[in-house]
Amino acid sequence: MLNLSDKHIIKIVVSDKSPLIQVGLRTLFGCDKRFALVATAVDGEQFMKQIGRVDFDIGIIGWEMPYLNGRGVLKEMANVDGPIPKIIVYTSNLAPDVPRQVMRLGGAGFCQKSESPERLIETILAVSEGRMVFPFMDMSKPGNDPFGLLTGREQELLIALSEGNTNIQIASELDISLNTVKFHLKNLYSKLNVKNRAQAVASYLKEYTTV
Predict the structure, then answer these.
(1) CA dihedral of residues 140, 143, 145, 149 (deg, nearest 10)
(2) Which of 1, 43, 54, 64 is deepest in the core (most CB within 10 A)?
(3) Domains in the chain and their CATH numbers?
(4) pTM flag (> 0.70)
């Protein structure tokens, strides 16, 4: 889709619930002739409507968005016919499982909002050249972090819990039985040393998310 050797201008769509982030990125890209911000969206549903309607190369999306979050966007894009833009998740969420989810769901890059604007630019350029950009994932110390002990499925359930989904909704979304959901939740609570979903979500939000 991209050919930088022909001085291709990288067309970008930004989706983020924060007006400040949208304004900041508009300013950032407006000062760099390599980029063109062609549209913005405040949630994942609006972002998905841009696909097929607007010609763009890279989508920069938040992870926590109303109506359809970053995980939902990546899952829906797997069902889009034809060429699709590459996706970079740009978030303040510090949960270590988020980059893994982004990679597993087909995202091309991941960047923290706490990093410098130059880092985001570098990520965009690398992704535009066909590379994947993710932070180093240290798998050597899982025992020091109870969240690191969770399986991929348990991580998915924890994210679903944090979004307020019921057991029935989780079972439907993950295409597993209700009994399987209950089995995974029992193991999840044990690993996090909590008694219920409220405590699990509170532990997750306290440890890994920022306002």
Answers:
(1) 90
(2) 43
(3) 4-128 (3.40.50.2300), 142-208 (1.10.10.10)
(4) no
Helices 97-104 and 70-77 pack at an angle, to 10 degrees, of 20
Residues above pLDDT 70, as percent of the chain: 89
Q: pLDDT per residue over 32-42, tens digit each?
A: 999 999 999 99
CA atoms within 13 A on the CB side of 184: 22
| Residue (of 14, 11, 15) closest to 68 by Cα position | 15
- Token pair belonging to 190: 């044990």
Degrees (nearest 5) of the Cα angle 162, 102, 30?
Answer: 105
Alpha carbons 102 and 63: distance in angstroms, whole number: 9
Which whole number is the average pLDDT over 14-23? Answer: 95
Amino acid at 165: N
CB 193 within 8 A of CB 147: no
| Residue 40, H or E segment | strand 35-41
d(CA 126, CA 65): 25
Q: Is 3 a residue whose pLDDT tops 90?
A: no
DSSP state, residue 123: H
DSSP 8-state symbol, 74: H
Between 155 and 26, the more confident residue is 26
Measured distance CA(80)–CA(75) in Å, rounded: 10
Whether the predicted pLDDT of 87 surpasses 50: yes
Q: In what side-by-side order are the strands of the sheet with 10-15? A: 35-41, 10-15, 58-61, 86-91, 109-112
